Amino acid sequence: MGAKRSRTTKQISPISCDSGLKSSAIIASAVIVASSEDLLIQILLLVPIKTLMGFNSVSKQWLSLITDPRFIRLRYPLPPSASALFFRSSSCSSNPDYQFISLDITEVSPIPFKTLNFTRDPLSSGISVLQSCNGLLLCASHQAREFNRRYYVYNPTTSQFATLPRIRREYSKHVLGMSLAFDSLKSPSYKVVCVRTSGKLLQIEIYSSETQLWRVSGEPFTAPKYMEFGNSRFWNAFYLGEFEGHWHLIEVNSDFTSLFDVYEMAIDHSWWFVKYQVDLSAISSVFPEIIKNNRYGYAFNIISLGRRGREEDDESFLVLEIPGGKIVHYNLVDKTVKKLWEYAPIGYKFYNDDGLRYCRALPYIESLACV
């Protein structure tokens, strides 16, 4: 027994000593890192974003560093790419639910939110998303009259939000639409554009997060009678949207064509040119349900156009809704198609004879932008 105790003592002593040395070395290394802001930045740039959010509470120095626009530009030197699409999954009168669809079928990402509960809306009607713009969401009181509606800008990555000040009371009930404008590569601030009536004319007011004020922009103007100033930008076989600084336009003039073009606007905004061509027959060979029941034409709904990767044509793609509750990914470069998601068959309600729901999806983009 004595021999055993002796051997045990000899085993414990060196380990305890090594542990102490290792702890001292770790503390010394941490002090060196903390004292060198450049070294700390290089480390924080590699940390996953969810972990990075937890580091905000380490110290005021770390919080200031992580939220600094210069750090954000280093973290995201290129236009951000969407990791998922999300859309309202219910039409209930209370706080709406949202469904997320990952754009990477090989990786399951955590759902950022199911409902928006970042604040208690004073109207007790819940909060819904109107628009997604480069990581920020424009939100509003759900199903509320315009006169009472509250508007918010929310960053779901950082859980930060800002409540927008009301425009002048006499104009609040005349609002026709609100839109968010934000580009982190150009400025850390964002703007919200409001279109409202002014007598028989229309007027634009712009809110700036930099000044936190609304200002009238330009003179009152007229517009076509049926022009929409909401945030919808894609309807069935028509799409108009911006992605990574490029504007794209799709218009399918016939249900019977298997080919249609995707147009892109020139950098100087002077003209549109054909960027891609979509071949619906390539989709129907994998998902024959896209062919209408009468065998004439195709049934589909354009949900989104985007790009994954850093190269120009790494993976430009369309996301389409097809009959049967399927959401599919169509690669515009190599013409391949794959299923991203499918509605549960039980309880799913089709909204037209072609079996399409016409869901309106918005991009989800991780961002460190302050609001």
Please describe what this structure looks like.
The protein has about 375 residues and is of the alpha+beta class. The protein folds into three domains: about 1-75, no CATH class; about 85-220, no CATH class; about 235-355, no CATH class. It has seven helices and 20 strands. The strands form five sheets. Strands 11-12-13-14-15 form a five-stranded antiparallel beta sheet.
What key attributes describe this structure?
disordered N terminus, alpha+beta, four-stranded antiparallel β-sheet
Structurally, how many domains make up the residues? 3
Helix content: 10-25%
Query: What's the N-to-C terminus distance?
Result: 68 Å
Counting DSSP E segments of at least 2 residues, the number of strands comes to 20
What is the alpha-carbon Rg in Å?
A: 26 Å
Instruction: Tell me the β content.
Output: 25-35%
> What is the molecular shape?
globular
Number of helices: 7
The main pleated sheet reads as: 5 strands, antiparallel
Provide the spatial order of strands within the biggest beta sheet. 11-12-13-14-15
User: Uncertain runs with pLDDT below 50, 5 residues or more?
Assistant: 1-15
Structural class: alpha+beta
Averaged pLDDT, please? 81
The ordered string of helix (H) and strand (E) elements is HHHHHEEEEEEHEEEEEEEEEHEEEEE
Put the structure in a nutshell.
This protein is an alpha+beta fold. 19% of the residues lie in helices and 33% in strands.
